[in-house]
Amino acid sequence: MPINQKSKKIVILGAGFSGLYALKSIYRHVKNWPEFDISIVDKNNYFVFTPLLHEVATGGIDPADIVFPIRDLAKGQTEHVEAEVLSVDLLKKSVITSRGEISYDYLIAALGAGTNFFGVPGASENSFTLKNIKDATRLKNHLIHLFDEANGEKDPERQKDILRIIIIGGGATGVELGAEIHEFLKEINKEYPAISSDAVEFFLVEASEKLLSIFHQSFSEKVLKILESKGFKIIFKDPCAEVTEQGIVCASGKTIKSRTVIWTSGVSPSPIITTPDIPRQKGRIVVEPSLNLKDFPEVFVLGDQAAVADKKFGLLPTSAQVAAEEGNFVGKNIARLILGQPLKHFQYFHKGDLVSIGKWKALAQMGSGFLKFDGPVAWLIWRFNYLTKMPGTAKKIRLFFDWILYFASKRDISEI
Predict the structure, then answer these.
(1) Rg (CA), the chain
(2) Measured distance CA(54)–CA(140) in Å, rounded
(3) Are 242 and 255 in contact (CB under 8 A)?
(4) Can you list the positions of beta strands (E) in 116-182?
(5) How far apart are CA 6 and CA 12, in angstroms?
(6) What is the pTM of this model?
(7) 87-114: per-residue pLDDT in tens?
(8) 100-103 β-sheet, strand order
(9) Backbone φ, ψ for residue 341 (5° rounding)
(10) By C-alpha distance, which of 380, 324, 369, 370 is closest to 348?
(11) pLDDT per residue over 12-70, tens digit each?
(12) 8 Å CB contact between 125 and 312
């Protein structure tokens, strides 16, 4: 049976960046929003600040400090439905969830994306990913446990096989995570005097010919030098062709032994079954410039699920920055749709890109790369940018003190 509703109903699918910002945008722009029955559907009861997951995975931040309860973000009678979205019937204006059917008058689909393994055999079964809190804590526990296992191994070569780390993907996630893992493992290494400091090896495999493809060429070269100075072995233009329990096989046939393969390359839009089926591009739902569906104007699609055409990027990138901007915008068009006014086109302005490469090291380029800088200033801007975007004053304070402890003491190396 459909879940009861009052008069008109707005349903948001997903509590990621686009879903959260869409909810806040509705509160700002739909002047009579208290008259609407608003529901936000997500399988978790919290929002995760995903750009900082790599610091959870490396003992720099407490997991609880980057999650925020959805009910604390909701105003008035807004309801959170903890359920999985199974399908959407566009003709009946109905969402089928694991907890039943929800009717809607206006729908926002913002279910994000998972990892794209590009059909590589064994990748999903034998790789670590970093998409949620469970991924981060699982990876952290594994990294710590490696040293206990290596500590009981007397053969130096077998120790290296245990402690060898392979990162698949040289984008921002791969670079940030790789740099943080390097610092984390060097810190753990100090607790194990029987393990040589050169026993830990780091590989980064990038299918293209450069790291950080969205950054200026000079920054790609700079980050390459920084990672190489940390001891990373970078493999270009020889993509991973198979992942096994023993390591990886590259397209050239080269094999690298490892107990820890971390996949950071590529995203796959969360699948959603619709009736009728609707056009998609690269798995993403094709939307109008107003971010809604051509034949179903009351349905908006945002974030990683949306194929939004753009002159510069082709399709807008699957990033938190894009998702947040689309979420901020969508409330305006829902308000206009309710009032029967023409919808506005979404105009994306790329503010720039930031990437951290360990303590006091970061790269920043503003806009299209006209303004570029690196080092401690860029690192502080990176921190300040995420601190201001963290929802809730209490969480901002807790995150700030996490970072103070990050300077003043060791990272947390307890398995949880």
Answers:
(1) 22
(2) 9
(3) no
(4) 165-168
(5) 16
(6) 0.92
(7) 999 999 999 999 999 999 999 999 999 9
(8) 100-103, 94-97, 85-89, 273-275
(9) -95, 155
(10) 324
(11) 999 999 999 999 999 999 999 999 999 999 999 999 999 999 999 999 999 999 999 99
(12) no
CA–CA gap between residue 30 and residue 343 (Å, rounded): 14
3-state secondary structure of 125: helix
Which long-range CB contacts under 8 A does 278-285 form with residues at least 24 apart? 278/90, 280/307, 281/307, 281/315, 282/307, 282/315, 284/315, 285/109
Q: In what order do the strands lie in the sheet with 371-374?
A: 352-356, 362-366, 371-374
Q: Residue 92 in contact with residue 299, Cβ under 8 Å?
A: no
With CA atoms as reference, report the closest residue to 178 among 145, 203, 141, 208: 203
pLDDT at 3 over 60: no
Asked if 374 and 364 touch (Cβ cutoff 8 Å), the reply is yes
For the chain, domains (ranges, CATH) are 9-115+268-350 (3.50.50.100), 117-265 (3.50.50.100)
Edge-first strand listing for the sheet containing 37-42: 79-82, 37-42, 9-13, 106-109, 299-301
**Paired tokens of 246:** 């023993």
Read off the tokens for 93: 């204006």
Q: Which residues partner with 260 through β-bridges?
A: 165
Are 240 and 248 within 8 A, CB to CB?
A: yes
Residue 343, token pair as written in the block: 């919808």
Q: Which amino acid does the sequence have at 219?
A: F
Closest CA to 38 of 1, 88, 73: 73
pLDDT at 77: 85
d(CA 359, CA 379): 8
Whether the Cβ atoms of residue 262 and residue 127 lie closer than 8 Å to each other: yes
Condensed to tens digits (0 to 9), the pLDDT of residues 338-350 reads 999 999 999 998 8
Matching residue, tokens 């020889």 = 238
Pairing mode, strands 100-103 and 94-97: antiparallel
